[in-house]
Design goal:
mainly alpha; 9 helices; 242 residues; single chain; two-stranded antiparallel ribbon; 4 strands; two-stranded parallel ribbon
Length: 242
């Protein structure tokens, strides 16, 4: 019988990754009841429509600030991998200078995913580059508050993402995944998730994957609601954001 994670204190879930070595467990294809799938998808549609409609004036303001901050488009589009590693176009407000070189980020991802957990620097303890020189001034604010992620509600409305779920990787990140890492892509990726409310970028890569697998195996609609409720305070504080 599936264990309901809503009975757990989400803050205490950090103990799962702090007190145990990564188990590299594999999970099968999640089998949720039909009504659970309908409920999750129905909530995704209603929630994303509400945000897109009510937040449209705020979206316009952010777009104007992005355009004023540096030359280039308002939105950043990138290919990400969704459920079963299917590629899709992923949208964000642009937070970096246009046409920048991603070589440094590619190298960082490879080192972070493959690196030894026993020898990590302060930079290696986060899943994003600290003081990334490609980020614009307004982009830094958008990333700290996660406001750059708001256009992904369009991805949610299209059915490519869910409000809650594992974050979608870039293809060159996925190339470095071990087989057990790939299990995090057995569900739709999400805007927010257990990782974001349990340490965000300050959680190591293996620990992030274990949190994602815990979420997949313990999913319930109430767990999604609890994660969403904890997301706003994390955004306001900018916990683990770079």
């Amino acid at each position: 019988m599936k264990k309901d994670a809503t009975a757990l204190d989400l803050a205490a879930l950090g103990e799962v990754v702090e007190t145990h070595e990564p188990l590299r467990l594999r999970i099968g294809t999640p089998r949720y009841a039909w009504w659970e799938r309908v409920l999750k998808r129905g909530f995704d549609i209603a929630f994303s429509l509400a945000v897109l409609l009510i937040g449209s004036p705020f979206f316009l303001l952010i777009g104007l600030l992005v355009k004023a901050s540096s030359p280039g488009p308002t939105f950043f589009r990138q290919t990400r991998l969704g459920r079963d590693a299917e590629p899709f176009d992923f949208y964000k407000f642009r937070s970096m200078r246009h046409n920048n070189d991603d070589t440094a980020h590619r190298d960082f991802c490879a080192e972070f995913i493959n690196g030894s957990e026993d020898e990590v620097s302060e930079q290696d303890q986060v899943f994003k580059m600290v003081a990334d020189p490609r980020i614009t001034r307004i982009g830094g604010f958008l990333r700290r508050t996660s406001l750059d992620e708001l256009p992904q509600f369009w991805n949610v409305l299209k059915g490519e993402m869910s409000v809650v779920g594992p974050r979608p990787p870039i293809a060159y990140e996925y190339e470095h995944y071990q087989e057990w890492h790939k299990d995090r892509l057995k569900v739709k990726p999400g805007l927010t998730g257990l990782w974001q409310v349990s340490g965000r970028s300050q959680v190591g890569f293996d620990e992030m994957v274990m949190l994602d697998l815990h979420y997949i195996g313990s999913w319930s609609f109430l767990l999604d609601l609890r994660i969403i409720a904890r997301t706003l305070p994390v955004m306001v504080r900018g916990d683990g954001a770079y």
